[in-house]
């Protein structure tokens, strides 16, 4: 089934906070502007081209600060911590909206400011139901006056992307109390420049006839070729049959014009999961996303073939999120203002019912994402967790950092480079392994320590143990007090994926992430079938119960000219807590009533 939903629904402010456009206020004539964010230099990979037309239109997204600041995260931990009396009591959409709504004073100030600059708040293209996000069309000339900045047209030769962005922006001092972030401003990435965490290892794999694995014994062939049967045997799901299929849904986030192909899925199932033949998935189109069945994507096919294969007969939904159209400098139609993650997660949060599990296999170097933007998006993921969804992201394919690992703050220091959104403390980050009997860390498994987010309480002891054992090694290259990732891991190399009718070998933590998502979806099925809640944000639960995972004790994740971190006993920033054992985890989630 396919359908399209526009994310740009004009919704009233929640809770009756809908103010008439205030009279134009003199307070905005010469306000004191205070810098919100600035880059020291043009972000690497981007090249300044020219000044945009002053009439070029931007779809400006404004994130308003929450009136009940701090309550969102407190509530998330309460419903996610097994020892708390509120465990599993997730909130409804309306309850979360109330928790994140801005103060009426913030709404008044922002609307007054917009009106002063000729932008009628009543013309907003999008308002979140909580009132915390507003999208309104502004010309470049308007945005430059409002933000005390100068926009430019920048190109990204590697991806052939062109965007209108600025190197800094400011806000009136009064609005710093009310606005968390505005975009597009200094976040340069688009859906075309994000890093997909998968890669083809070998095309047109010549395979001998495949034999299904009928028990939990993992054959040696899984050392080089990973199939659904390998994963079901490795992670102990062979004997589980989902039953809550009328309620349980696994969502796959797709970007980069990556289209999952239905014919390839059937070919895959006929080869590797014969009892699931004729099973399909739903496709939801977000922000102009497509569903071109003549152009199957490696990433999309990898995701959907393994989520369907792992969770049959659970419902799967593929979200195809659109990219920006080509930049046309003279048009007055908004272009190239697409914001990765932000549009997708706001679309999901606008739905009354959402999947219990999400998998996403894309990311950026954390340092390329402005901190105000990263924090705002990370808190949107927290909203998903509070509504009962588990949000998983691949940890990246560059070990402790890819390339020269130089900082972009003007100092050009070499530091380990964490990835975002994997570094967000409210998502579950998935690293990679390889081989069987035993599994070891795959050498590209992304892992490290955030420089934006501090170590959350749920992993504090596990991380402290690792850092203590590391001693002085890599001192100064990573943030010892940062949110550490990955949280867990799974196989990440040699996945058999059907693309345009042929079998290819695909690797990357993009393979690991949907694998773990499939196992979480099965755990959600088990809980729902027993009239329990979905798991939601799982990190507090899993760090309190590391015995639910197979500890990976060898392997490294080199990068930045170093050998990277080393996997060892307990949590490590290569494979996290280890790979999942479904049977053990089933007992753990059953006990966490």
Can you give a write-up of this model?
With 593 residues, the chain is an alpha/beta fold. Helices cover 24% and strands 22% of the residues. It has 13 helices and 28 strands. Strands 1, 13, 14, 15, 16, 18, 20, 21 and 24 form a nine-stranded mixed beta sheet that branches. It has a four-stranded antiparallel beta sheet with strand order 5-6-4-10. A three-stranded antiparallel beta sheet has the order 3-7-8, with no helix packed on it. Helix 6 (262-272) crosses helix 7 (298-311), helix 7 (298-311) packs parallel to helix 11 (509-529) and helix 8 (342-349) runs parallel beside helix 9 (371-386). It is globular. It starts with a strand and ends with a helix. Residues 1-22 and 330-336 have low confidence and may be disordered.
| Shape call | globular
Beginning-to-end CA distance, first to last residue: 35 Å
Low-confidence parts, pLDDT < 50 over ≥5 residues?
A: 1-22, 330-336
Reported for the largest beta sheet, the result is: 9 strands, mixed
Give the total of beta strands.
28
Instruction: Determine the structural class based on helices, strands and strand pairing.
Output: alpha/beta
Mean of residue pLDDT values:
90
The share of residues in helices is 10-25%
What's the Cα radius of gyration? 23 Å
Strand content: 15-25%
Count of separate DSSP helical elements: 13
